[in-house]
Design brief:
With 70 residues, the chain is α+β, with helices and mostly antiparallel strands. It has one domain. It contains two helices and four strands; from the N terminus they run αββββα.
């Protein structure tokens, strides 16, 4: 993903969730996704999907069962 895409995703997340705490980081040697953090907590990955000439982004977040009991 380009720096421009990363910034647009970060701005979008902060706008939608009404915060300035989201941070989007590029992944080393993997250019079709980026890492999403809320402050210093890793939340998941956003993947860039290209199908029939259209680009979309999918957010993947894993929630550990142990985290639900805290």
């Amino acid at each position: 993903m380009t720096e421009d895409e990363l910034k647009k995703i970060e701005n979008y997340l902060n706008k939608v969730f009404k915060t300035n705490e989201f941070l989007v980081k590029e992944r080393k040697a993997i250019d079709d996704s980026c890492e999403i953090y809320l402050e210093d907590e890793f939340l998941g990955l956003i993947y860039k999907e290209t199908e029939e000439g259209e680009e979309d982004y999918q957010f993947h977040m894993t929630i550990l069962k142990g985290d639900l009991s805290n």
